[in-house]
Amino acid sequence: xxxxxxxxxxxxxxxxxxxxxxxxxxxxxxxxxxxxxxxxxxxxxxxxxxxxxxxxxxxxxxxxxxxxxxxxxxxxxxxxxxxxxxxxxxxxxxxxxxxxxxxxxxxxxxxxxxxxxxxxxxxxxxxxxxxxxxxxxxxxxxxxxxxxxxxxxxxxxxxxxxxxxxxxxxxxxxxxxxxxxxxxxxxxxxxxxxxxxxxxxxxxxxxxxxxxxxxxxxxxxxxxxxxxxxxxxxxxxxxxxxxxxxxxxxxxxxxxxxxxxxxxxxxxxxxxxxxxxxxxxxxxxxxxxxxxxxxxxxxxxxxxxxxxxxxxxxxxxxxxxxxxxxxxxxxxxxxxxxxxxxxxxxxxxxxxxxxxxxxxxxxxxxxxxxxxxxxxxxxxxxxxxxxxxxxxxxxxxxxxxxxxxxxxxxxxxxxxxxxxxxxxxxxxxxxxxxxxxxxxxxxxxxxxxxxxxxxxxxxxxxxxxxxxxxxxxxxxxxxxxxxxxxxxxxxxxxxxxxxxxxxxxxxxxxxxxxxxxxxxxxxxxxxxxxxxxxxxxxxxxxxxxxxxxxxxxxxxxxxxxxxxxxxxxxxxxxxxxxxxxxxxxxxxxxxxxxxxxxxxxxxxxxxxxxxxxxxxxxxxxxxxxxxxxxxxxxxxxxxxxxxxxxxxxxxxxxxxxxxxxxxxxxxxxxxxxxxxxxxxxxxxxxxxxxxxxxxxxxxxxxxxxxxxxxxxxxxxxxxxxxxxxxxxxxxxxxxxxxxxxxxxxxxxxxxxxxxxxxxxxxxxxxxxxxxxxxxxxxxxxxxxxxxxxxxxxxxxxxxxxxxxxxxxxxxxxxxxxxxxxxxxxxxxxxxxxxxxxxxxxxxxxxxxxxxxxxxxxxxxxxxxxxxxxxxxxxxxxxxxxxxxxxxxxxxxxx
Length: 894
Hints:
Helix content is about 40%, strand content about 25%. The protein is an alpha+beta fold.
């Protein structure tokens, strides 16, 4: 926006007053915007009532009324004002809701404030200018249609390719007495099922913009019409058919009668007089028709003019007075057009040269001047008209004022130049890919990877990406069709031109449109010294302990080989309400637990029917890790106690000194309080996660403010010694930012109970779908399920990610299982570089590593939740070997 123009007036609404301050500072720095602020949507609505704003920026999550509700209220009052959602919330459903309710743009907070506010400023200018341009085009369209509605002739506009009726003037609408917009012209006007054989579309398209005049008898209306057709340009840019039809039925009939009169003139003088009278009437009709045509000329917005062969104006339509600022036509008739109306006479000379060369001129643009000498930009169509002897009599044509359109075009061009300047001067590399080919990149992108722009343009994009990342990025780009962000600050590596080094960058990608076609648009950020060791806070793994919570003896009973009760202790009598004398010696111990006869866990293992445990206990029964031939389960018994009891029960075989089975023991533990505590813990965790999410959102907002303020401070510091104090603060802010993002990604570790998970399924999802084609995956004896935290898939994903990042020449990955001494060992190995001996004891510590420092640490924490251990025993130079040791009870055959 030129500095001489008044700044755009913008309302910024956010419940963070510091964020409002930093937004106001950034947007008002160059004088392009004047920013008012409001701390709530209700305050913003009150300000919008008193002030006419050019645009509104709003946060999404605010107390009282959120950003979407605020948008709906604004749209009720002013449908056209640009509205931008600027928030830290990035959920897809919020984005969709915002755009569906009329938001012009959606911008997420976070990241570098300079580029973020530059993008916000760019979107603001684009939205405001687009709304203003749309207003001008709508006004011009309304003026054109009002001219047509003032004519007492039938005027309609249709698409010459589809025959769709686009417009019918008021006179024609009243004649038809029905709505025909959007319908087919030959069906509505000629009652036909296919295009008319006399249709003039081919003629006027071939000779556009020349008019074509003809007469036609319409059998549907039983009327004769004098018709003028021509091609004009519709507001949406397409060529359309304009038809103006004058009803000449009475004139036609009069002429027919006149012809008959001439044939009978010899026989009837009275009849001749009568015919003569009709001729006079027809002349009057013709005169009226000419007046109607003259009315069109006198009322149209464009100027129709005629000059003699010396260039002097001899005729002009009344619209010339408004266009050039004169009071009467007498002031301009007789003036020399080149001397009086052209700002630069050479433009008139150039027009005449084209006329002499081609005989006609279309859309010739030039600067003219008004009476007060102010400039006006016009587009003119002109051609010669001739004397009866064939000599040139002069020039006639039309002039259209395109000053506002030209200003809008210039503003658009300036905006494009600004975007081009920003792209070429930002510190990030920018590129656009269509059909896997680079069709645009800025100099910074080429500089980062050691090429020139000309070397990159027209070449395949993925040849510049490090092989271990290439397949994933190709998959992401080719499987995303909707216009959306598919990667944001994704750590990856590009190949340098010299082939000796790899460039680590932060890659952001989105699917969009470039020159009307589907495109992948991306940026890469390269900064030496990016801290890869991110400090973070991980929650302590939650121990799942089934402890005895009461001091009373454990309820228990013993059955013999025939399933008769031998022992029924007092604690069980108390819980069940069944005394020992009622049950001992019988096989009705099920009465204490179930309403109908069914086996207890002791009965099932006594019969060695462990395969039926799944049927009776629905996956809750597990083999004991402490006692051989023992299984445990948990269930709720509603008729025990006052309100029901949760019991943890274990069935174990009883053997004699020879090892022969003589019975089974079942023990029960009241875990009601524990189950209630677990439910309370789940609710507490849910609230803690909600608190963490809200706190993280507020911290990220504060970090955005601090980072923006730091950028402003750096711009004002010119002393290098003082500037050196800022660097540690910037690094601290970056560290905090990465810590917060890490807590967001892994806040659910250990929250849910462990579950049984299939190793083959996890390998298929996490490894086979993510390895490049040049890496071979070999598996052996892995048909097991593991009882582990729900994030077990991350273990395999991080292992393959570790191999791809650090394996260098790695081309093979092996995963195998080995069951031995009631333990299962899952072995993961590759043939890459391996790990140096002095690092083996440190690689599972937090913060150790050349990437984020959290991959192997997280693996250890996930596995430890269910007592699975991991160690690395490979030989440096031959590849890594990770052993995951799963204890008994935490694995089973798949």
